[in-house]
């Protein structure tokens, strides 16, 4: 005979209630696990996308551009802000600069809103700046109407080299010059066209979305950024790619707050549920607890017993919730990708792992066990004489 | 108080409040029950016999007066001391059995030994054999009759080997055949040297004990 055996036996007396109590905590653990997975996944994916996969060390944009850029990438439409193309030459003259890539980025959404195509006007410098840039098929633009397809777009459009692609929006026909492999990045869903063509299509000749810069030596980043910043007009931003990532993550902040509030509410509900259930369990067993005191159970024994009952529920439910949360968080990642956030990086924006599951488990376990303290205290304070006399 | 006294009350009173009314449940009672006595406390409902038993069982402190259990005065004893006395000195049997429905018969009997930090599996089996339930060890309380459940409760009250057994209306929920069987068990325990105190309002059962204390309105009347 052990305390654990008695605790489990007590839980078995009302299995539906025990399961429902556990369920509320499991939902909390799962929610927390999903939120943590999404938060970390999104942060990592953005950092990876903007810092590692682009090969860009620095961007020159117009004031307000980090959010603007995110908005353009996600929502389509043209930014009213632009960088003058002649700045490219100024930047190229800086000795520490290795590659300068001027680009024009815009997105076109179909009339029914069902599809958004991202176009990026580029120059051949992209081959030097992107570390993974290569062609699955074909190669560089052969004319002003050439297009290079991201790997996913080629698959969706079912196009091959030399095929023609008609854009209803621009009433323009493009010829596929190259197809990129799948990078699992934003590039997969992008139509790359010559910079001049892109500027012409949206009537922004001589205007750029931004200038991407690769340095010869990354250790000169701060000095070079200051040098370039000093040579630019005051309303121009010179941002490290890391800063741009941080800007986008700041933009994600409001979504993050909502997610954490959801997790907090779920935990709060489970706190009330556990306290209520365990208190009910104590109150309806007052006579029995009084009898246990008669046969020698002290206050400590009853604290031990009630806490163990809660502990059994909390361990089981928190573990089940954390595991479930790990499995379902990619589903929420897909939902978030579709509806919730402006800038969608490539790869999974939900990255559950053992550490996140463990943190969710521990937080919910601690919360659950803390919830048992008051009911356990009430049980320990039952005066057998009063109960036996009055009930 | 001599060494032979199991329970002693000296001018013990217990008042409690029910709404605006003050109930004199035990009113200036003095008595002594020697080791090995078989005593029945009789009286009508509400006469104070259960309150008297609770004072004897260290479940409550007297409002005034003194109570000794196994030679220890409980008036100033704190909750820990009272708990320890309930573990070691007294076995309780109640009318409602209070068996835990999801524990087996054997586990129910072992339960008080858990709180006393004792291993008592073999002793519990011996006690269940004593009460005639050796073949019911793994049954759940729901599979037993009322008489069987009370026998389990008696076995449970004995598992920590207390010298005193206090039984409050132990036959109140039983038919006459089972009631006779339970009283027979108490006889057997008495013969083995235990001190037995049975509270009942059943006059027929009252005559079973060697000593009878009649109580009415909180006072001893015989």
Notes on the structure:
The complex is a heterodimer of chains A (391) and B (222). Chain A is α+β, with helices and mostly antiparallel strands and 391 residues long. Chain A has helices spanning 3-12, 15-53, 65-75, 87-92, 126-129, 151-157, 195-201, 221-231, 241-251, 253-283, 286-294, 299-339, 354-380, 384-390; strands at 58-62, 83-84, 97-109, 116-122, 137-138, 146-149, 164-167, 172-179, 190-194, 207-208, 210-215, 236-240. In chain A, strands 1, 3, 4, 5, 6, 7, 8, 9, 11 and 12 form a ten-stranded mixed sheet that branches. A two-stranded antiparallel sheet of chain A has the order 2-10. Chain B is of the alpha/beta class. Helices cover 32% and strands 29% of the residues of chain B. Chain B has helices spanning 49-56, 79-88, 105-115, 121-130, 146-158, 176-191, 203-206, and strands spanning 5-18, 21-34, 38-42, 64-69, 72-73, 90-94, 164-168, 195-200, 211-216, 219-220. In chain B, helix 6 (176-191) links the parallel strand 7 and strand 8. In chain B, helix 3 (105-115) runs parallel beside helix 5 (146-158) and helix 4 packs across helix 5 (146-158). Chain B starts with a strand and ends with a strand. In chain B, 50% of the residues are buried. The model of chain B has no long low-confidence stretch (mean pLDDT 85). At the A-B interface, helix 1, helix 11 and helix 14 of A face helix 1, helix 2, strand 6 and helix 3 of B.
């Amino acid at each position: 005979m052990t305390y654990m055996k008695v605790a489990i036996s007590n839980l078995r007396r009302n299995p539906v209630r025990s399961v429902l109590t556990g369920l509320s905590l499991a939902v909390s653990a799962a929610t927390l696990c999903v939120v943590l997975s999404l938060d970390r996944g999104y942060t990592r994916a953005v950092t990876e996308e903007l810092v590692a996969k682009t090969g860009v060390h620095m961007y020159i944009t117009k004031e307000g551009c980090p959010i603007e850029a995110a908005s353009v990438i996600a929502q389509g439409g043209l930014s009213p802000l632009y960088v003058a193309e002649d700045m490219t030459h100024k930047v190229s003259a800086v000795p520490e600069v290795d590659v300068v890539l001027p680009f024009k980025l815009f997105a076109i959404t179909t009339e029914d809103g069902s599809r958004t195509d991202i176009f990026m006007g580029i120059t051949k410098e992209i081959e030097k700046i992107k570390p993974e840039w290569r062609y699955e098929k074909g190669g560089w633009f052969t004319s002003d109407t050439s297009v290079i397809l991201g790997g996913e777009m080629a698959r969706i459009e079912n196009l091959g080299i030399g095929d023609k692609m008609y854009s209803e929006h621009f009433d323009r026909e493009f010829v596929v010059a190259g197809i990129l492999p799948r990078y699992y990045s934003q590039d997969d869903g992008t139509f790359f066209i010559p910079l001049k063509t892109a500027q012409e299509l949206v009537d922004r000749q001589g205007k750029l979305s931004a200038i991407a810069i690769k340095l010869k030596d990354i250790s000169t980043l701060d000095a070079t950024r200051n040098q370039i910043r000093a040579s630019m007009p005051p309303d121009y931003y010179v941002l490290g790619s890391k800063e741009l990532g941080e800007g986008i993550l700041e933009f994600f902040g409001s979504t993050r707050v909502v997610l954490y509030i959801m997790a907090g509410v779920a935990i709060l509900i489970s706190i009330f549920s556990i306290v209520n259930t365990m208190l009910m369990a104590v109150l309806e067993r007052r006579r029995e607890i009084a009898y246990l005191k008669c046969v020698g159970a002290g206050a400590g024994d009853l604290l031990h017993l009630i806490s163990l009952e809660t502990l059994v529920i909390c361990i089981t439910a928190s573990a089940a919730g954390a595991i479930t949360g790990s499995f379902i968080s990619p589903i929420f990642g897909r939902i978030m990708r579709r509806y919730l956030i402006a800038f969608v990086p490539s790869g999974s924006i939900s990255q559950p792992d053992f550490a996140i599951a463990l943190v969710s488990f521990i937080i919910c376990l601690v919360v659950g066990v803390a919830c048992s303290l008051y009911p356990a205290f009430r049980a320990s304070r039952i005066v057998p004489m009063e109960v036996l006399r009055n009930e | 108080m001599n060494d032979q006294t199991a329970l002693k009350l000296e001018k013990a009173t217990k008042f409690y409040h029910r709404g605006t009314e003050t109930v004199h449940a035990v009113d200036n009672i003095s008595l002594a029950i020697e080791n090995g006595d078989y005593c029945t406390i009789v009286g009508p409902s509400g006469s104070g016999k259960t309150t008297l038993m609770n004072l004897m069982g260290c479940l409550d402190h007297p409002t005034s007066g003194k109570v000794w259990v196994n030679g220890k005065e409980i008036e100033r004893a704190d909750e820990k001391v009272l708990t320890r006395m309930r573990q070691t000195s007294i076995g309780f049997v109640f009318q409602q059995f209070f068996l835990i429905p999801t524990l087996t018969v054997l586990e129910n009997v072992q339960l008080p030994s858990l709180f006393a930090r004792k291993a008592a599996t073999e002793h519990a089996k011996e006690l269940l054999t004593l009460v005639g339930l050796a073949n019911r060890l793994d049954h759940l309380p729901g599979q037993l009759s009322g008489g069987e459940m009370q026998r389990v409760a008696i076995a449970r009250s004995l598992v920590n080997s207390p010298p005193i057994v206090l039984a409050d209306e132990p036959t109140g929920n039983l038919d006459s055949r089972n009631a006779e069987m339970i009283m027979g068990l108490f006889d057997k325990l008495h013969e083995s040297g235990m001190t037995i105190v049975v509270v009942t309002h059943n006059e027929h059962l009252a005559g079973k004990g060697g000593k009878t204390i009649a109580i009415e309105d909180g006072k001893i009347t015989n």
